[in-house]
Amino acid sequence: MRRRAVLAGGLALPALARAQDFPGRPVSMVVAFPPGGQADVVARPVAAALERHWRQPVPVVNRAGAAGEIGNAFVARAAPDGTTLLMALSSLAVLPEAARLFGRPPAYEMEQLAPIALFTADPTLLVVPAASPWRSLEEFLADGRARPGRISYSSSGNYSALHVPMAMLAKAAEVELLHVPFQGGAPALTALLAGQVQALASGPGPVAPHLREGRLRALASWGAHRPAGMPEVPTLIERGFREAEYYIWAGIFAPAGTPAPIHEALRAAMAAVAAEPETGRALATGGNTLDYRDGAAFEEFLRTDSARLVRAVQRIGRVE
């Protein structure tokens, strides 16, 4: 027993030494989507704050494809040394379950990623062009029922963070909408602004400037409460769709197996940059609200939200 304890202590010493010098070299922050989407607009101010804190480069690396699956899997397989991080969205737990629906082995499992810190957890907004004929959720749904499959919406891919909430609404409201997937949130928003599609579910960050400028109109929110600063926008829950609750959250993950001292160094750094007023201001400028959680609080949030989303995917079923 004593020999095993000595060996364990000896193995822990190198990790502790690395943590004391951490990071000592650049740390990549992977975003599994193209620039301009929700994960990207949260990652960039956080990465900038970490660069100031660590005095090391923290490049944001966009590894887009397969609704986020490619970038998520890349980090899940990365060396667990703390130098490759993932700014993940709520679709993180959805994609492995979607793969199982099709009988495919998932590209990664949640157990391969270690949660570090949550930065935002914004309710999703249903937005349409300001020139559209719908001025309320009820008008939108009534038109959708009158013209099945004729109202189109864009997303960042099948089972992505922009697809699942719309699929949840369509299922709950018994309305058939036309899904048009793109490679990421930014192309999906561009398609809406260009008139290629007619609706979009989005986190507030990417659409906030267009709402302020009057180019888009918000019809509803998937949150439990009306969105901050938008008291006129009802929630789907208050409109009777109790199963339609969805948050586009953004949080930092490291590969599982990252040594505990490095994991704690990462958590401490995230807490420090979240406490800087400049970080909150930068996120707010991008239309997001800082909602920082780490440790047990983030783990509990992740468990609860992931369980809700897995149930939603099972209800939605296979999407070709």
TrEMBL record:
CDD domains: PBP2_Bug_TTT. Residues 1-19 form the signal peptide. InterPro entries: BUG, Bug_dom1. Pfam families: TctC. Keywords: Signal. The keyword Membrane does not apply. Belongs to the UPF0065 (bug) family. This is Tripartite tricarboxylate transporter substrate binding protein. It comes from Belnapia arida. The lineage of its organism: Bacteria, Pseudomonadati, Pseudomonadota, Alphaproteobacteria, Acetobacterales.
